[in-house]
Design goal:
Length: 758
C-alpha cells in the first residue's frame, strides 16, 4: 500500500495484469472522440497485448509513457496517501445502501488513474493519426524506429500535465487532427526544425549542411531522419504541406494537391541548393522556411483548379527535364488554365474572382522564376501567358464584362495580343491604352479608370520585364503624354484638372530622373507639380521628406525641394498649435528645438541662394506668407500676431524681427487689433477678411456670407476662427460656430487637400 501508483503497473496487486491494462485502455477509447475510427485502432482496442497487432518496441514504449503519465498525475503520492488525504473521491453508496469495501475503493482509484493515463498517452500518440501511420509501417523498420524513438522522448512528444490527481470526473476528449499523417510525428519534427532554423541565423550561408549537423548532434530521433530516402521524404513533405496549408486542403481531400506540391518543393529545393541533386528532410525544411510565400502561391493556384487539370499536371512529373524546366512547365499549365480554359464557363460569375486570386498568386511565382531563369525559352512562353492573364485581370476589373471571357471581342483580343509581345518597346503600352480608349466613348470616368489601369499594370510590368532605366522612362513618358493629350480633349472642368494631377503623380512616383522638357511640352505648370508633390509627400515621415543638397537643380528638383520644405514646416506648425505657448520658453526644450527648425527652414533660400539664383528672394517671401497663413488658419490672426511678436522669440530668432531677414515677419507689431493682414498678404486679402469677419459677427448676417471663388476660402476660415475665439461669451462662440457650419458645410478632405497649396 505504501508503493507508488506506478508500482501497480509492475507489481500485480489486486491481480493487476495485462488484462487490467487492456480493460482500462478500452475505457480510455470510450472517452476519446476521433474524426473517423479506423480499423487499426479497433484492433489495438481489442487486441492490445497481441504481438501481431503491436510489436514489442511499440508496446513497451506505450507502457513506459503510461507510467510517466501516472507519475505526473500522482505527483509522488502513494495509494494509501491518496485515499487517506481524500485526494480522490471515494465510491458512492450502492442502491441498497451498502458501501463498497476499502479494497474495491482502491481498485476503483487505480483503474481510474490508469484510464486517465491511457487517455493522455493516446491523445499524444493518436494526434494526426501518428499511431495508425506507425502500425501501417510495420514492414518499414526506419519509420517504426522513428515512431518508437520519438514516442519515448517526453520533451519531443509531451503529454498533458496535471496538478496532483487528474480530473476526478472523466470527460470526453477530441483527438487533434489537422491531417492524416503518413510519417510519424511529422508536425512535431517540423516545429522543431523551424525553431532550429530561426535560432541559427548566423549560419544562413549553408543552412542545410548546418541543419544536418544539428540533427546528428541532437541524437535520436532526429539523427534517424538523415537515413530517410526519397520515398520517406515524400511522405514527410506531404504531411507538412497538409499541416502548413490546411486552408487549401481539407482533411478528407485526396492526395493530388499534396503530391503536386511535394514535387514543386523538391524542385525548388534543388534549384536553390545547386550543389545537391538529392533531396533530404533538412533541404525540405529550409525550402519550406525560405520559400513559403512561393509555395503557398502554388497551393492557392492548385486549390482553384479542377481535378482534371491537376491530373494533367501530375503527368508532367516524368523526370525528362531539369527541375527548373519542369517547374516552369507546371506553372505554364496552371496559367493557361486561368487564361482560356473552357471548363470555367460552367461558373462564369466566379471567373473574375478566380482570375484575380490567380494573378495575385502568380506575382510571387513570376518574381522567383525571373530571378532564376529570365533567359530560358520555357520562361518566355510562361511570361507571354502571364502578361495576357494580368491584362485580362485588369480589364475585367476596370472595363470589361464577363462576356469578354466567353466571347472574344476585338478590344479583348487586341489588348491581349499586344500584351503577349511584351512591353520592352517604348510604345507597346501606349498602343494598349489606345486600343481600350478607342473601344469606349471618351469621358472623365473612362480616363480615371485608365489611370488606375496604368498604375496597376506598370507595377506588374516593372516586376517581370527586363527594362533598363532609359526604356522605363521612355515608356512612362509616352503613356503619360498620351493620357494628358486625351484628357485635354475633354470639356474643361475641375474633374479634368484632377485627372491631370493624378496622371502626373503616377509619372513622378515611377520615374526617378524626369526630363523638364517633357513637362513643358504638355503644359504642366509649376503649381500643378507642386500640388502633385504635396499629395505624394503629405503622409510621409519627415525623414522621407529630407531635402538632398543639389548644386545644379533643374526646375523639377527645385519644386520638389520647396514641397518638402512646406511639408516639414506644416509638421512644425501643427506642433506649435498643439503646444502650450505661454510661460518661460526656456522650460520647453522640445518647443525650443521646434522653433530652431522653423527658423532654419524659413531661412532655406538664403542659405541656398546659389542654387535658386535671382528668384530666391521671391521664393522666400512667398514661403513666409504661406507660413503665416497656415498659422492664421489653425490659431487665428490674433494668436499669430501675439506669438511671433514676443520679445524673447524676436531676440533669439532674428528672422521674426529684422527687415533684412524677412520683409514679411517684420510687419508684425504688438497690438490688440489685427490690422497687419494687408501688409504681408495683400489689400484684397485683408478686405475679404474684414468683410467675412463683419458678416460672421452676427447670426443674422451669416446667411449672406458666401464665397464665390476658391481663393476666398482661406480668409473665410481665418475670419470664422477670429470671431469664434475673440468673444468672451462661450455661448456666443458656440452659436457662431454652429450657424456657420449649418450654412457653410465644407468638405474636410477638400480643405486638407488645398491646405498646403494656399
Amino acid at each position: 500500500m505504501e508503493d507508488s501508483i506506478c508500482g501497480f503497473i509492475d507489481k500485480p496487486i489486486f491481480t493487476f495484469s495485462a488484462k487490467v491494462l487492456k480493460e482500462n485502455l478500452q475505457r480510455a477509447f470510450y472517452y476519446l472522440i476521433f474524426p473517423s475510427f479506423r480499423h487499426v485502432l479497433s484492433k489495438i482496442k481489442h487486441e492490445f497485448a497481441e504481438s501481431n497487432v503491436l510489436l514489442e518496441p511499440v508496446h513497451s514504449m506505450m507502457i513506459e509513457r503510461l507510467k510517466q503519465a501516472k507519475n505526473q498525475m500522482a505527483d509522488g503520492y502513494t495509494l494509501y496517501e491518496i485515499l487517506k488525504k481524500g485526494l480522490y473521491k471515494k465510491l458512492l453508496q450502492s442502491k441498497n445502501g451498502q458501501q463498497y469495501s476499502f479494497i474495491q475503493n482502491c481498485k476503483h482509484v487505480v483503474d481510474s488513474l490508469i484510464t486517465s493515463g491511457w487517455i493522455q498517452v493516446l491523445l499524444a500518440l493518436c494526434e494526426n493519426c501518428y499511431l495508425e501511420a506507425a502500425l501501417d509501417s510495420l514492414k518499414k523498420p526506419l519509420l517504426l524506429s522513428i515512431f518508437v524513438s520519438s514516442g519515448r522522448n517526453k520533451q519531443f512528444v509531451p503529454i498533458s500535465h496535471h496538478e496532483y490527481i487528474p480530473d476526478k470526473n472523466l470527460h470526453f476528449f477530441k483527438v487533434k487532427m489537422l491531417y492524416k499523417a503518413q510519417f510519424p510525428f511529422s508536425w512535431n519534427f517540423h516545429t522543431w526544425f523551424v525553431k532550429q532554423i530561426q535560432a541559427g541565423c548566423s549560419w544562413w550561408s549553408e543552412p542545410v549542411s548546418n541543419l544536418e549537423r544539428v540533427m546528428n548532434s541532437s541524437g535520436e530521433p532526429f539523427s534517424l531522419l538523415n537515413n530517410c530516402e526519397e520515398r520517406e521524404c515524400a511522405m514527410y513533405t506531404k504531411d507538412v504541406i497538409r499541416g502548413m496549408f490546411h486552408r487549401y486542403i481539407s482533411v478528407q481531400a485526396n492526395d493530388d494537391i499534396p503530391n503536386i506540391a511535394k514535387g514543386i518543393i523538391f524542385w525548388i529545393g534543388i534549384i536553390m541548393e545547386k550543389k545537391r541533386s538529392k533531396v533530404n528532410i533538412p533541404l525540405i525544411e529550409v525550402t519550406l522556411y525560405q520559400m513559403k510565400d512561393v509555395i503557398e502561391s502554388y497551393l492557392q493556384l492548385l486549390s482553384l483548379c479542377d481535378t482534371q487539370i491537376r491530373s494533367s499536371i501530375e503527368q508532367l512529373f516524368n523526370g525528362k527535364y531539369s527541375p527548373l524546366v519542369q517547374l516552369i512547365k507546371v506553372t505554364l499549365k496552371l496559367s493557361e488554365y486561368f487564361l482560356w480554359h473552357p471548363s470555367q464557363t460552367d461558373n462564369k460569375d466566379n471567373i473574375p474572382r478566380k482570375i484575380h486570386l490567380a494573378c495575385d498568386a502568380l506575382q510571387s511565382i513570376a518574381s522567383f522564376l525571373h530571378q532564376q531563369c529570365s533567359k530560358e525559352g520555357e520562361y518566355q512562353e510562361f511570361l507571354s501567358v502571364y502578361r495576357q492573364l494580368q491584362m485580362k485581370n485588369f480589364g475585367l476589373k476596370y472595363f470589361w464584362t464577363i462576356d469578354c471571357y466567353l466571347i472574344s471581342s476585338n478590344e479583348t483580343m487586341n489588348t491581349l495580343n499586344l500584351a503577349k509581345q511584351g512591353f520592352a518597346t517604348k510604345d507597346t503600352f501606349a498602343q494598349i491604352i489606345n486600343s481600350i480608349i478607342e473601344s469606349h466613348s471618351l469621358s472623365v470616368s473612362l480616363m480615371r479608370k485608365i489611370i488606375y489601369f496604368i498604375r496597376d499594370s506598370l507595377h506588374i510590368v516593372q516586376q517581370m520585364e527586363p527594362l533598363d532605366e532609359q526604356t522605363t522612362q521612355l515608356m512612362f513618358q509616352n503613356v503619360i503624354g498620351y493620357i494628358i493629350c486625351r484628357i485635354e480633349e475633354l470639356p474643361r472642368e475641375n474633374s479634368v484638372n484632377v485627372l491631370v494631377l493624378q496622371a502626373l503623380e503616377l509619372f513622378l512616383a515611377k520615374v526617378k530622373e524626369i526630363d523638364p522638357t517633357f513637362l513643358e511640352k504638355y503644359g504642366c505648370r509649376n503649381a500643378s507639380l507642386n500640388r502633385v508633390y504635396e499629395r505624394m509627400l503629405m503622409n510621409q515621415k519627415n525623414l522621407d521628406c529630407k531635402i538632398v543638397p543639389n548644386p545644379n537643380p533643374n526646375s523639377i528638383k527645385k519644386i520638389e525641394a520647396i514641397t518638402k520644405l512646406k511639408i516639414q514646416l506644416t509638421e512644425y506648425i501643427n506642433f506649435l498649435c498643439r503646444s502650450e505657448t505661454t510661460g518661460e520658453l526656456s522650460a520647453y526644450e522640445t518647443f525650443k528645438s521646434t522653433l530652431d527648425k522653423i527658423s532654419e527652414a524659413l531661412s532655406y533660400f538664403k542659405s541656398n541662394k546659389a542654387q535658386f539664383g535671382d528668384v530666391s528672394d521671391l521664393y522666400e517671401q512667398y514661403l513666409h506668407i504661406w507660413f503665416l497663413r497656415q498659422c492664421c488658419i489653425l490659431k487665428g490672426p490674433c494668436w499669430t500676431q501675439n506669438f511671433f511678436t514676443q520679445s524673447e522669440i524676436r531676440k533669439k530668432y532674428h528672422i521674426f524681427a529684422s527687415k533684412k531677414q524677412s520683409c514679411v515677419f517684420s510687419e508684425l507689431e504688438p497690438g490688440d487689433m489685427c490690422e497687419w493682414l494687408g501688409a504681408p498678404f495683400s489689400k484684397a486679402f485683408a478686405d475679404k477678411y474684414n468683410y467675412f469677419k463683419q458678416k460672421l459677427s452676427s447670426a443674422n448676417t451669416i446667411k449672406s456670407c458666401v464665397i464665390n471663388a476658391k481663393k476666398d476660402l482661406i480668409p473665410l476660415f481665418i475670419a470664422a476662427l477670429s470671431v469664434a475665439t475673440s468673444s468672451t461669451n462661450p455661448d456666443k462662440r458656440l452659436n457662431t460656430s454652429c450657424v456657420f457650419l449649418q450654412y457653410h458645410t465644407i468638405n474636410y478632405t477638400t480643405f486638407v487637400a488645398i491646405f498646403l497649396s494656399c
